[in-house]
# Entry
Amino acid sequence: MSGSRITFQAGQDAQPEALERIAAHLRTQLAAASLAGLRSVRRPLFTGIGASYAALAVPVAVLRAHGVAAQRAQSDEVETGLTGFDTDLLLGVSQGGRSSETLAAFKAAGEASTLAVLNVTPSPLGDLAELRVDLGNEPDSYASTVGFTGTVVALDLLAGAIAGRGEDPWHGIAAQLRTVRERAAEAIAPVSARAGGCVAADCVASGASRAAAEETALLLREVPRMPAAASTTRTYLHGEMESAGNTLHVVLGDGREVDLARSLSGAGHLTLLVTAEEVPATDDLAVVRLPRTAAAPRVVLETVVAQELVRALSAERGVPIEAFVFANDDTKEGGVDPGDFAIGSPELTRA
# Structure
């Protein structure tokens, strides 16, 4: 079964209210008696594929900050079983609940406890799971908007429940999202033509923001079809940045990332810095200023900037946002569902 599909722009427009609904929906589910045992989980293993795997950087960072030994693994790493993984709960993420690799991981989990994080219900993954939480069957776009950011909300609230976190960082997210989207559009417009002519993009971040960097790289590949890669900040500094040349650099962060962005732009490389710091823009450095927030809401706001970026680059490069190229009918249980895609626009790597 598939959730209903909307256009990319409709997903952007719907996001503020959708995330407020999703947060409220998740709070109700996490208060249920069936999930009371989450507080005793000490070694969670999160698994997913594609965009779902990217989102998992958020709960791992949140839980490690609270002293919980969390890990993430791509679903195809655990689809033959959990041997070698020390875990007391396997948490699988799949927006549609049909990703073949995540289903295989749950089928191979043996006696391990399992929890599914979904948007679409009912779904095959939900049927396999011992426990489940969902976003509420929110409509989503082909290159995910609400589905991805809503999954980040769900994973953060789930991590908060495991950690016994008292605060809820999601109040007011709708207003923050609208403000950041406006700032992103203003910052990107003057550089969009130049960015559209770049041959590739590097997306760089650390901590929980790795989720946004990985999602940005995927969106750049899916929407304007720009080759892109995601790196952690320190890894990027150790040689990867040497290939800069007619490339777009998307740098997310407030620490070493600011100096990195200045170094790249100072050498004449087009750079988009997404930061909560006050950094002046230059001809080669576009800056989107973020409010200071907790780690997970920040990832959502960083992703909102990425969505504005790929929408602008899609127009510059003449690539219809809803048009995908390759059909991989072994990535979903039951094969390609025509309801998942635009006419003539089959699947890439969405999970």
Observations:
- The first strand starts at residue 44 and ends at 48.
